[in-house]
Write a structure and sequence with these properties.
7 helices; two-stranded antiparallel ribbon; mainly alpha; 188 residues; 2 strands; Four Helix Bundle (Hemerythrin (Met), subunit A)
């Protein structure tokens, strides 16, 4: 197996295991944080390297510091399609609800389940869905109970998004425009 694929497979496994440990609010927050980081890697892969330390563009108070801004830019650049953009915005909204709610929140709550249903339907077309679902169905939840299907589907969605965002980032190169504006004029 290609080393980059081995690395991606290992990362995906680690994400699924971490989310299994977290459960509830923690699984939602960790999962979306992983997707956000993977999407940032996609964007960084098409941008020219930043001069100096770090990339200030992605700092919290900067233009690409929010998950929503990263999603919109990735879609506008054609790096993700419309169903993925919609799924990412849904995850962003669910994450925000979980992060800012003082009350108990669960993925099985009607509002969250309804919001995520379309993203799940889209993700089920991915060839990884069935084998990963079987693996998670064989996993045990807390106290040797079967894994809750709502958590399982959420983990599947996050895992597929992270795996394919990471694979996309590995295949992209910095954008090279056909012309560049210079003080001396327009050139290549």
């Amino acid at each position: 197996m290609d080393q980059s694929l081995q690395g991606a497979a290992s990362a995906v496994r680690a994400i699924a295991l971490q989310m299994l440990e977290e459960r509830g609010r923690g699984a939602v927050l960790v999962g979306v944080a992983r997707v956000d980081a993977a999407l940032e890697r996609v964007l960084l892969s098409v941008l020219l390297p930043s001069e100096g330390r770090g990339d200030a563009l992605f700092q919290p108070d900067r233009p690409l510091g929010s998950f929503g801004a990263k999603i919109s830019l990735a879609h506008r650049l054609g790096l993700i399609d419309q169903p993925v953009e919609k799924a990412l915005h849904t995850l962003r909204r669910v994450r925000n609800t979980f992060a800012h709610s003082s009350e108990s929140a669960a993925l099985s709550d009607l509002a969250h389940a309804s919001a995520l249903a379309e993203a799940y339907r889209e993700a089920q077309a991915n060839p990884l869905w069935s084998p990963l679902q079987q693996a998670l169905d064989n996993a045990r939840g807390t106290g040797d109970q079967p894994l809750d299907p709502t958590l399982r589907d959420y983990i599947l969605l996050i895992t597929i998004l992270v795996a394919f965002l990471e694979a996309t980032a590995l295949q992209l190169r910095p954008f090279q425009p056909p012309v560049v504006m210079r003080f001396s004029g327009i050139g290549t």
